[in-house]
Amino acid sequence: MRFAKIKQMLLIPLATLLMLVALALPGQARAASKKTYIIGTDQTFEPFEIQDKKGTYNGKKPGIDIEILREIAKHEGFKYELKIMSFNADVQALQSGQIDGVIAGMSVTEERKKTIDFSDSYYNDGVVLAVAKDSKIKGLKDLKGKTVNVKTGTTGSLFAESIRKKYGFKLKYYSSSNTSWADVKAGNADAAIDDGPALRYGIANGTGLKIVGKQMSNTPLAFGVKKGHNKELLAMFNHGLRWLKKTGRLQKIVNKYTGKKAVKSQVVADTSIMGLLKSNAGALGAGLWMTVKLSIVGIIFAMLFGLVLGIMGIAEHKFWHGIANVIIYIFRGIPMMVLGFFIYIGMPTVIGHKIPLFTAGVLTLMLDEGAYIGAIVRGGFESVDVGQWEAARSLGLPYYKALWKVVAPQGFKLMIPSLVNQFIITLKDTSILSAIGVMELTQTGNTLIAQNFQGFKMWLIIAVMYLVIITVLTWISNYVHKKMKI
């Protein structure tokens, strides 16, 4: 009888949790349109991808890749939705079937041909070596014993790996070019090897680097789909690309971003703290709202999940106790970034369905933070004096009523400091979701720095924004804690 009551207690929060997860899934996840293709692209890779201040590619000058895709889609009559991630995540998402295609300044290599079907080439690219303006390095021969930065998964990184032993330098990997370049400018690395057009564009917009030597390892760039899939999309892209070449539109797009009068990033004239705040208020506000929204929804799910685990953890039946321990052990042991990639990129290959980005972020927070909350809830209940249990049971209260009416109210008071601390950690952990492309506050910072190259000032602004939110949460939690003690 007692076992049945415990099951009843667990089913209520569990059913609520499943219902909320179902409601969180956008309609397109349950009934995706066959006519809309999901196309992955890079976060920051000028001049091929140039985000606007809102972190989108809806502006008039979105970059070579986006303009090519926009023109071809219009000419061929298909719709698409862009998924903005790091280049490495784009390739993984393509191979897992989470996206239908990738256009991100992607070079055609023999290794990539094993898993990707490429379109005809629309541009020939190469890599270059860049150093700080005051550097004495003049070429590859001067790199012995030096540290060279590369962007993960790119042709630049592959080329650098192939010559590393010959020239005797060390490699550091970054997910974005701008971070790699800023590291060289700051003196933490000696040089960067990256795509020529991207570096030249960055230098024109004030990265503080210079290119030394000649362009190397010239390779064609192309649009890609998963090998053996989306043949219709690939055929439409090739047909539209031939039209762009024939009409001269392709060359006009390329010249627009690589010619002498190439467009520059949206660099503001006033680069003071107040100037940056004023010119980027909309983008920072949107990023802050996404962070808050992820935190709130993630905490709700994590609390429900943690409550289920906590109740299971104090159950007298060893079966429930064992399951709770295993779940808590697993999700506390997996790094959150790994969990995010697994849910967003890995799971679709298993379940056969795409997972919306926001939903993937919420599930990541729920599982990771919920495991910690489960341990807190269990510890809170176990901290209540055993005499309270015995007194409740001696009055004839069943196990579940003794828990909810006597033990739980006392246990939750003991949990409040730990739960508040976990809420704050959850808010900060939303920044990790930028790795899978969630446009929260940290990812917004990456986008804005790619436009104005004011890394120190922008990160200072974002750090202060996080600090203000966490301070407000701490004040509220302290107030609630004092009230509950009364």
From TrEMBL:
Residues of the ABC transmembrane type-1 domain = 288-477
Q: How does it sit in the bilayer?
A: Multi-pass membrane protein
Gene Ontology cellular component terms for the protein in this record = ATP-binding cassette (ABC) transporter complex
Kindly give the SMART domains that the UniProt entry links to this protein: PBPb (SM00062), PBPe (SM00079)
- Give the main localization category: membrane
List GO molecular-function terms, semicolon-separated: ligand-gated monoatomic ion channel activity
What is the annotated signal peptide range for this record? 1-31
Please give the biological process terms from Gene Ontology that the record holds: amino acid transport
Residues annotated as coiled-coil are: none
Q: What keywords appear on the UniProt entry?
A: Cell membrane, Membrane, Signal, Transmembrane, Transmembrane helix, Transport
Sequence intervals crossing the membrane: 294-314, 326-347, 458-480
Where is the protein localized? Cell membrane
What family does the Swiss-Prot or TrEMBL record give for this protein?
A: Belongs to the binding-protein-dependent transport system permease family.
The name on file for this protein is: ABC transporter substrate-binding protein/permease
Provenance organism = Lactobacillus porci
